[in-house]
Amino acid sequence: MGTGASKNPDSSSHGSEEREDQAGGQLYVSLKMENYKLKGELFPHVYGSVPLVGSWDSSKALSMERESTSMWELSFVVPPNHETLDFKFLLKPKYNNAPCIIEEGPNRLLTRGTLQGDARSALFRLNNDEVLEYRVFIKADRVSPFDLAASWRAYQENLQPSTVRGIPDVSINSMPEAGAENGSSASLELDLEHYVVPAPTTSANSGLVYAANMTETPRSLTRAGVFSNTDGSGSGPHSYKDGGVPVDRPVTIKEMEVIVPDPSKVYSGSGMVESKSVGTFSPLQKQDGHRGLFVDRGVGSPRLVKSASATTFSTNLKLDSETKNAMPAAAGAVAAAAIADQMLGPKEDRHLAIVLVGLPARGKTFTAAKLTRYLRWLGHDTKHFNVGKYRRLKHGTNQSADFFRGDNPEGMEARNEVAALAMDDMIAWMQEGGQVGIFDATNSMKNRRNMLMKMAEGKCKIIFLETICNDERIIERNIRLKIQQSPDYAEEPDFEAGYRDFKNRLENYEKVYEPVEEGSYIKMIDMVSGQGGQIQVNNISGYLPGRIVFFLVNTHLTPRPILLTRHGESRDNVRGRIGGDTVISDTGEIYAKKLSNFVEKRLRNERAASIWTSTLQRTILTASPIVGFPKIQWRALDEINAGVCDGMTYEEIKKNMPEEYESRKKDKLRYRYPRGESYLDVIQRLEPVIIELERQRAPVVVISHQAVLRALYAYFADRPLKEIPHIEVPLHTIIEIQMGVTGVQEKRYKLMD
């Protein structure tokens, strides 16, 4: 790469030398750094003297581009007889203002495309004295002026100024060749983990926690000096008085004891009973007594008057003004059913108990958790009571399989006692305003179920939900998950010993198991795989029980990801206007290409996946670069209807419609735009989407809008309705919801700022 310098010192010789350098073109220099053990969010940069950077100020350092997961590059063009380039490498943090880390050793000198001195790696000493080493590669190629001109001309032809933002943005117009990246601005790193950002603290990560630990904290067992909650979960603090005893519970241990009803004196399972029975109804009662259908969010809730007995309640049906005027936290059919319940429904029908039945390792707790999440999302006040949690709190976690034998009277009495405690807590919660209780236990014998029906008589309606699984592979998988996650085996270091104990426990239950034949019930038979199976329903009627059956028919445990993302930035986003149906901006187009690359990489082996969009063009345009997957448009995924405010900015609404602005500010959940929708309306129209997402066995990419994705995300994350309007769903970010046998897990990818 010499300059062809002549030994003849005359002027003509110097002129010839200059012309030769010009004819020889320019030097295309590539600086590369390679490291396979990248450290957090540190990114290589270059800084130095003229003409490369022109400053030793680290804030002006040039960023190196990522070429692969381990290689970074900075390329530039200089004349062959350029000044010596004096520079160094440094590492800069991506997200904070922490100091840069400058490579150790002397400055690097580049002269005429050649690095002076010995070739050496770039060494960076971190705060903990750890040394990070990058291999350094320098390459210089001579490029003719004609090649440079042709490249510049092609570059200019493929760029256009932005017409949306009013600033000199550019976007690539030319279509890439098949299989090529969609332009450098839209290309992605080979490793998608590069784009992972922290999820919110309230993210959908139930799959990381044992499901039973997220159930309701036993109130009857959490009193100071008696029992303590060892698993750290709970629904909130209780008020205490002298000595740490909750004010709303009996004081002494003797008073706390629960009298277990004599099973021989309760239901015989004959089917037809009196009207106060919660198991079945006579034909006349079925006709006249089932109009108000279980939706009670404070509408007509009786005020609780506690009697001296811990398990006996009387009600004062005189409603105060606040209760009379309360509306349920729901809309549409849910609100209508709540009013019907207040006006027409039997008292016991105001509250519904879903009582799980089934052998261990059949997915009862997982099914209960999913059903709880679904009902809460629809606006029903629902709680999940797990009897195993009560048992562990009262009797400890070190119970062997003998504790669960049917011929062990002490064990039977202890288990019936904690079941009665849980039922007592659930009924007390219902009397305080709760609507749907999920009672999670094996409840494998008719005597136990009769006891529960007797306790619920006149207070709530019971529907048994029996889960039956005959697939040995699924049972084996559930057993192993149980050993790994259940607190019952947390202190058992030997997995095989825990496995044998649980198998013995399972055999003890199988010896005495009695299928449900009494009362109202739903049987799920081999439904968990999502492939076939059947569901049997007996004596089920009404709005809410019907919704529950429909949900259970469509739910399964097949692992698959669901990807939620907003459309690329639209022109109305740029202008700050709500609603509308504008196209995406130049930035939105870049995101659409990045999203296409992401989907291709993330779902390359999932050819059965599908892409769902709304019917608005900004979501359709965002999905347009994605190829190879079917695309489905849902009107239910359209953005919240802003009514007469559509196309306005919030400042315009505040100025021209101040009352509407203040009403929305006070209650974003229930506020309905004039001639438009509220968040509760959006939730109602999204129920078919949720059901279909539960039914799908392949991955789904949902490209929709902020309000809609807030509602969908709240379902998976089990967030309260009141939080939905405030959930953060940023642009150009993908929320991956992983659904599977252990619950729901979340991961977020931010493709663009």
TrEMBL record:
<dbReference type="InterPro" id="IPR029033">
    <property type="entry name" value="His_PPase_superfam"/>
</dbReference>
<dbReference type="InterPro" id="IPR013784">
    <property type="entry name" value="Carb-bd-like_fold"/>
</dbReference>
<feature type="compositionally biased region" description="Polar residues">
    <location>
        <begin position="1"/>
        <end position="14"/>
    </location>
</feature>
<dbReference type="GO" id="GO:2001070">
    <property type="term" value="F:starch binding"/>
</dbReference>
<feature type="region of interest" description="Disordered">
    <location>
        <begin position="1"/>
        <end position="23"/>
    </location>
</feature>
<keyword id="KW-0378">Hydrolase</keyword>
<dbReference type="Pfam" id="PF00686">
    <property type="entry name" value="CBM_20"/>
</dbReference>
<keyword id="KW-0547">Nucleotide-binding</keyword>
<keyword id="KW-0808">Transferase</keyword>
<dbReference type="GO" id="GO:0006003">
    <property type="term" value="P:fructose 2,6-bisphosphate metabolic process"/>
</dbReference>
<dbReference type="InterPro" id="IPR013078">
    <property type="entry name" value="His_Pase_superF_clade-1"/>
</dbReference>
<dbReference type="GO" id="GO:0005524">
    <property type="term" value="F:ATP binding"/>
</dbReference>
<dbReference type="InterPro" id="IPR003094">
    <property type="entry name" value="6Pfruct_kin"/>
</dbReference>
<dbReference type="Pfam" id="PF00300">
    <property type="entry name" value="His_Phos_1"/>
</dbReference>
<dbReference type="InterPro" id="IPR027417">
    <property type="entry name" value="P-loop_NTPase"/>
</dbReference>
<feature type="region of interest" description="Disordered">
    <location>
        <begin position="221"/>
        <end position="247"/>
    </location>
</feature>
<dbReference type="InterPro" id="IPR013783">
    <property type="entry name" value="Ig-like_fold"/>
</dbReference>
<dbReference type="Pfam" id="PF01591">
    <property type="entry name" value="6PF2K"/>
</dbReference>
<dbReference type="GO" id="GO:0006000">
    <property type="term" value="P:fructose metabolic process"/>
</dbReference>
<dbReference type="GO" id="GO:0004331">
    <property type="term" value="F:fructose-2,6-bisphosphate 2-phosphatase activity"/>
</dbReference>
<dbReference type="InterPro" id="IPR013079">
    <property type="entry name" value="6Phosfructo_kin"/>
</dbReference>
<keyword id="KW-0418">Kinase</keyword>
<dbReference type="InterPro" id="IPR001345">
    <property type="entry name" value="PG/BPGM_mutase_AS"/>
</dbReference>
<feature type="domain" description="CBM20">
    <location>
        <begin position="21"/>
        <end position="126"/>
    </location>
</feature>
<dbReference type="GO" id="GO:0003873">
    <property type="term" value="F:6-phosphofructo-2-kinase activity"/>
</dbReference>
<dbReference type="InterPro" id="IPR002044">
    <property type="entry name" value="CBM20"/>
</dbReference>
<keyword id="KW-0067">ATP-binding</keyword>
<protein>
    <submittedName>
        <fullName>Putative 6-phosphofructo-2-kinase/fructose-2,6-bisphosphatase</fullName>
        <ecNumber>2.7.1.105</ecNumber>
        <ecNumber>3.1.3.46</ecNumber>
    </submittedName>
</protein>
<dbReference type="GO" id="GO:0005829">
    <property type="term" value="C:cytosol"/>
</dbReference>
